[in-house]
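Input sequence (664 aa), recorded before submission:
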Amino acid sequence: MPQHLGLWLGLLTCTAGATSLPIERVLTGHIGWTTGAALSPDSGQLALVSRSALFLTDRATGKRVSLAGHTGPITAVTYTPDGQTLFSGGNDGTVRRWDSGTGQRRSTLQACGFVKDAPQYREQVTTLAVRSASDFVVGCAGQLQVWRGGRLVRTVPGTLAAYSPDGQRLAVADSERPLKMYDAATLKVRATLALPLLPRPIDVFTTPGSPSALAFSPDGSRLAVAFRDSMPKVENFMASVYDTGTGERVFNLGGQPDFVDGLAYSPDGQTLAATGRSSTKLYDARTGKQLRLLQPPNTRIGVLAVAWTPDGRNVIATSVKKGAEVLDLTGQVRQTYTVPDDSVMALAWNPAGTLLATGARDGRIQLWKGTSPARGWAAHPEGVNDLSFSPDGTRLASGGQDAFLRLWDTRGQPVTALGLKSNGVGWPQFSRDGGTLLFGDWVGLFAVRTARLTRQPNWSIQPVEAALYKQGGQAAYNDPQRWVALTGGAYWQFKSSGGSTFALRLLPDGRTVRELSAASGGAALSQFDSVTGRLTKTILTAPKFGDLYAAGFSPDGRRFASGRADGSTEVWAVDQRLGLQRLMSFPGEGTVDQTVFSPDGRLLAALHGDSVNVFDLEKGVEVGSYRGLSASTRAVAFNSAGTLLAVGSGTTERGGTVTVLRLR
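Predicted structure, token format:
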């Protein structure tokens, strides 16, 4: 243990006024998931959301403007009827008004209060309905707030709302209660819309679930309503069309029922477009008969919004992974709009500190020199979980959602790959000599001998396990001789302690592995021999870590930092027998999402939602903090010199995908 740690004979609780860490640079890259969309009334501008980031795209010129400000995901976005103002609402409980021409923020309204049973969190904005820049409706916690001229004038029960095109009526959906049609001026109920009956009731469920989408016809005479299923996995979705004057249901939409996230009438009112989790469909608005599929069913893309161009010739369907696609009425994609990601899932600096590697949900790895992208390539189709450079900086290991560990050179050329059987690979880390690579998945932990692994381009663990089963039916980690014979000793699987892994570290001897994982009532600290795969010792630490939320080992594995739900970060020492001693504790606000040591073990970073704090462990003080991250992330990395800290999130003021902070 370093000499300075021997001075800590008891628990030190550290509090100090910290300075705000300056931003060195903000990087923008990777294609993000498109989680929301709105089309201006004249179709000239498209507002797209990537979780916490909002972008305005001029459809004629392609020019894109980033609007930063929300802390956390944006949950609703819509234009005023004149197209001059854009409204956005988020899970930070705020409603923001933007000038759609300049992108300047006009105002911010803290509409939603705190969660009743969790006062550290805000209620999120669930819906926005806008009649003008000063008259609008905001949904919070099952209540709809009606605002006029900057004043809250009325609150009514509801989760969804929509104004009619002429602004005279307000449709309100409230969970499983009948829908109501209000007079927008007096807020008196004009009509009540009864829930439709299921064609095939299930037990006591005779009606579908709560409404998921509302849309008025251009003349306001009809209202289309989509309903969720009434029971999980039953999939008794429905969509119905009502007469807004009488409240009578006219018909249900035909075709195969599907969950619907978006509804939109064509400008002439003759066709109704519906988008859901799998496709975009067109219906005859007069009869409800399905006309055609504009997109083939694909449950992985999640089509969440739809709008028509004013000429009625194109539909803009927005999906999570494909972005906003402009489709003609035959289903041909005429144009696609995507957005940069607001955060990344993986970060790693090369040992020299000259390259920063980022990995994101788009499945790509990007190398950066300063503010410029140096090189990028497709790596893992379902997203990149983790990254790690070899000690000599010539290799980059990546773990992905596609259940592969992949090894690359710094030109992006593949060296080798190991296919597993889980759906997530992470925690890659090299031994100091680069000869061993450690990583984990949802099944176990793996030690890789890099020299042997690189002898062939592709490996797969499944045939090895199948062969072991045929030979004796024993699990791989219980039969080392057979495992080595089948793998050539290129890699070894050993059993995890059973729960999710919080932290993993290959010690400097290149052989001993320490893991901190979830256990009943707390956590388990385990130690393995990576050469034999044997578990050498485990201690249950439930009394000490009852609310452990995140953890990270120091580079030498002799300390770890634990993050708690109450916002505090504790530093612990671990001896050779896994004995524990708490060294120091730092208070904080909000649940700790990640803790990371600097390469020399002197600094510690702790992520808390929209903020990051950096502590000097030699002095026991906070070096500085930055508050204003726009997205929740677990990706954070120090450069080798400990002078820069990369965080896998943009900021509320400058947007972006990755923020690099200067420490000294």
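Checked by second reader. Residues 1-13 have pLDDT under 50 and may be disordered.
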